[in-house]
Design brief:
This protein is α/β, with parallel strands linked by helices. It is built from 10 helices and 10 strands. The strands form 2 sheets. A 6-stranded mixed beta sheet has the order 3-2-4-8-9-10, with helices on both faces. α4 packs parallel to α8 and α8 packs across α9.
Length: 325
């Protein structure tokens, strides 16, 4: 009745009723997943595979232009300077991931002096259609390849932030009812190895993200994940501003002028406190930092802003529930 009155009044006054943006929804079953079985899903994830459907030609052209514009906007590295290239990707279209990737790119870009060396791949933030390239396996591959072209692998660093739902075979790609896929640890290792990106800080906010640690760990790699390979992580409700991991690490700990290792320890403690207060099973975030990675981390951490920036958005533990990701 209230909606009907609004429409009638709008007709009398000549004003159109206010429209509220509705983020894309997951309403249809994921194709092939039900019949593929675990082996099929692992094979798909190992290939970084994705299924795209119902993509209109004009949408595909617009997406191509969005990605090309982002790639062309990246600045080359500066010889003799340890440059950081920040890539933040939300691989699921639920707005919580879009919000998290956007703000993570700002915090990481500011902390690691990556102005004009930052790319965000993400769907909507919940307020309007996204103007960014989508977070898909194919787009992520293209961005990483472009970063590899521009950086000096001997001195520069990739800062990679991934946020989405996760599974025991990797991190999940799901763009509403149109895009489906996954990226496995093996696929990520293969991509970075082929591109020659050795110096890398990899941050993964997803359930079971610890599956990435064994294969991606190296002397020149720092990797922090939201959970162990056997645990879920929390905070992924669509209307949240942050996941637990993103809020604790990015929105709080990494806004402070402290080394990455100290920030990781702080975030781990914060997450444990939230989980304990909500009677949630511990997610057990994982941290692995190679000896050589400590060297370039020290250089980057020394350039971090001395002034603490304030957290933004609603705290991830404001909606405490027992649902995992």
């Amino acid at each position: 009745m209230k909606r009907l009155l609004t429409i009638l009044l709008a007709g009398l006054t000549g004003a159109a009723p206010a429209q509220t943006f509705q983020p894309p929804q997951h309403t249809r079953p994921v194709p092939l997943v039900a019949s593929a079985g675990e082996a099929g899903l692992i094979d798909l994830a190992d290939q970084g595979g994705a299924i795209e459907r119902d993509r209109a030609p004009h949408w595909q052209l617009a997406e191509h232009r969005r990605l090309l514009g982002a790639l062309n906007g990246l600045a080359p590295q500066r010889k003799g300077t340890v440059d950081a290239y920040v890539v933040a990707a939300a691989l699921d279209s639920d707005p919580v991931f879009g919000r998290e990737a956007r703000e993570a790119s700002k915090v990481l870009g500011r902390r690691y002096d990556a102005e004009r060396r930052t790319i965000v791949l993400a769907g909507t933030d919940g307020s309007a259609q996204s103007t960014l390239p989508m977070g898909s396996p194919a787009n992520l591959d293209a961005v990483l390849a472009r970063v590899a072209e521009l950086m000096d692998p001997a001195e520069d660093v990739l800062i990679l932030y991934l946020t989405s739902h996760g599974a025991r075979f990797g991190i999940v790609y799901n763009d509403a009812d149109q895009g489906f896929g996954a990226i496995s640890p093996r696929r990520m290792w293969s991509t970075l190895s082929q591109l020659g990106i050795r110096n890398r800080l990899i941050l993964i906010s997803a359930c079971y993200a610890g599956v990435f640690v064994p294969i991606l760990s190296s002397d020149t790699t720092a990797i922090i994940t939201a959970a162990s390979s056997e645990r879920t992580s929390f905070g992924c409700q669509s209307d949240n501003d942050w996941t637990f991991f993103g809020d604790a690490l990015i929105n709080r700990a990494l806004r402070k002028p402290q080394p990455l290792v100290a920030a990781a320890a702080e975030a781990t403690q914060t997450i444990a406190t939230w989980e304990r207060e909500a009677s949630l099973a511990p997610s057990e975030p994982q941290v692995s930092v190679g000896k050589e990675a400590m060297r370039w981390l020290a250089t980057l951490d020394a350039r971090a802003p001395a002034v603490v920036s304030a957290p933004v958005g609603r705290p991830a533990n404001a909606i405490l529930s027992g649902s995992g990701r």
